[in-house]
Amino acid sequence: MHTSIATVSLSGTLTEKLAAAARAGFGGVEIFENDLLACPLAPEEIRARCADLGLSIDLYQPMRDIEGVPDDVFARNLRRARHKFELMNRLGADTVLVCSSVSPDAVDDDARAAGQLARLADLAQESGVRVAYEALAWGRHVNTYEHAWRIVEAAGHPALGVCLDSFHILSRGCDPKGIEDIPGEKIFFLQLADAPLLAMDVLQWSRHYRCFPGQGGFDLAGLLRHVLAAGYEGPLSLEVFNDVFRQADAGPTAVDAHRSLLLLREAAGAAELPPPVVPTGVAFAELLTPDAEPVTALLAALGFTRAARHRGKPVDLWQRGEARVLVSTAAGARRDGTRLAAIGLESPDPAAAARRAEALLAPVLPRRRAPGDAPLEAVAAPDGTELFFCATGRPGLPDWRADFADLTDTPAGPATRTRIDHLALTQPWHHFDEAALFHRSVLGLTAHESVDLADPYGLMRSRAVTTADGSVRIALGVGAAPTDDTVHAAHIALATDDVVAAARAFRAAGGRLLPVPANYHDDLAARYDLPEAELDAYRDLGILYDRDPGGAFRHCYTETVGRVFFELVQRDPGYQGYGAANAPVRLAAQHAGRR
């Protein structure tokens, strides 16, 4: 199906928005009037620019406060409309959006509204234009799609139909099933937007909190199925008012927007994409650093050993139990220090996982490979993290470890079982929702509820995406102080059977644990009836404690190296969280350590 996006959904000038929409793969746009008015190009030049980019102009919007008004006001409205229709002819747009009136001049008279819309449609038809009438959720008298359709049906004009907007329908709790009673040819346009479920004024909700399909709480797939069942064959268009999107770079936002429409079509049964291939584990985490010494010292204190070196690149494999960390000093390391650059995900079918990612517009990463290197598939996540699809130790499939030469003289690490429990990735503030949608849709992970974490300088948001069995857990976060990379750094959580023993061994090896204020452990003693010896160990080592109905979670943190730190965790099998209740203590301690 033809896809479109309203220019109001993107940041920048009109020409920048058009270019971003075209690069992202949209077939058309809705031109928002304010974007046109602020553009130095003439309508004919905008039309030519769209044609050059392969974009159709599917809608011009909005035309407001037209119907249900006194005759003298309507006469002025027709004069305004005549000018807009001439403008649309110059633009090459053949459909105009007319919103239900919010004017204090409007009266509650359906017959008057229908008659005036019919006269507007007469004028539009003379110019080859169609009128799509939309019920605003806050319309003065018409605020439901059923009411808008009754007026359009009463007007009975071939150039007059309805525009259905998912936000206006679902924000009011209307049942979309009734859409199937509208003839498909009378649905002139469909606008789609999701939104978080909020209890607030609907106008403010609409103007600031809309988001792309799959990023909110509306059942857009159900609504789309009803629209298609009615026989609608027009564009699927996004109209999203969002303060973050309008400040973010238009290019990535447009890609995220188009991805959301692809997913919506899949969910509604209107498109077939390569099926998701859910990862089964974490093969490795790769750290990129300009100076390997600090991070390798940290890894050694954690009990990792340097097990292998890449045959053709400056990359070492450090391993402890099932946990593998690659340390790379290759070109691309930034002067601001060590960062988490890549994640290897175990995949049942790496090639199929890559096909799914590519179909959903994930950038496929070119990889320079020597003749003997394993052919690894890789894509980029929205924050730039490289994701590799791996098949470690599986017969008949390339094994990335074959690119490494074993260091046979390296002593074995501790015998205790260690694996990567979860990874925490800090997102750019304007990519948080995009990242959650990406990991859910491209990787097939389940996205959990977003939580707010108190930071000394504001709030952090965090959202976990996981497999059903917890073999892959990724916590996506966005920080309160985006410039403080030491605190809002990525981290690797290592699962151990005995966090007290692991923390003691780390400290004995010269590692530095994050100190935790005594007040925390005094409060912990009041909240939980823990043995005194256990509490003493927690105080000594800075171990934090949490509990949910499934069990307990014990964890502590290392110092930060560059923009990465490690967490040692002991998770009871039924515990589902990440110690979120302790995050304010950890964040405050990291801020204090930085000072």
Number of helices: 17
Q: Helicity, in percent?
A: 25-40%
Distance between the ends: 55 Å
Strand content: 15-25%
Spans of at least 5 consecutive residues whose pLDDT stays below 50 are 481-487
Mean pLDDT: 92
Number of DSSP strand runs: 25
- Supply the helix-strand structural class: alpha/beta
Largest sheet, in brief, is: 9 strands, mixed
Q: What characteristic shape results from the CA principal axes?
A: elongated
Q: Compute the gyration radius: what is it?
A: 28 Å
Describe this structure in words.
Residues 481-487 have low confidence and may be disordered. The chain starts with a strand and ends with a helix. The protein is elongated. By secondary structure, the chain is an alpha/beta fold. It is 32% helix and 25% strand. Strands 17, 18, 19, 20, 21, 22, 23, 24 and 25 form a 9-stranded mixed beta sheet that branches. An 8-stranded parallel barrel has the order 1-2-3-4-5-6-7-8, surrounded by 6 helices.
Set out the fold topology:
Blueprint: E1 3-6, H1 14-24, E2 28-32, H2 33-37, H3 43-53, E3 56-63, H4 71-91, E4 95-99, H5 110-126, E5 130-134, H6 145-155, E6 160-165, H7 166-170, E7 187-192, H8 202-209, H9 220-229, E8 236-238, H10 250-267, E9 281-288, H11 292-301, E10 305-310, E11 315-320, E12 323-328, E13 339-346, H12 350-359, E14 377-380, E15 386-390, E16 404-406, E17 418-426, H13 432-441, E18 446-447, E19 451-455, E20 458-466, E21 473-478, E22 490-496, H14 499-508, H15 518-527, H16 532-541, E23 544-548, E24 551-557, E25 564-571, H17 583-594
Parallel strand pairs: 1-2, 1-8, 2-3, 3-4, 4-5, 5-6, 6-7, 7-8, 9-12, 13-15, 17-21, 22-25
Antiparallel strand pairs: 9-13, 10-11, 10-16, 11-12, 14-15, 17-22, 18-20, 19-20, 20-21, 23-24, 24-25
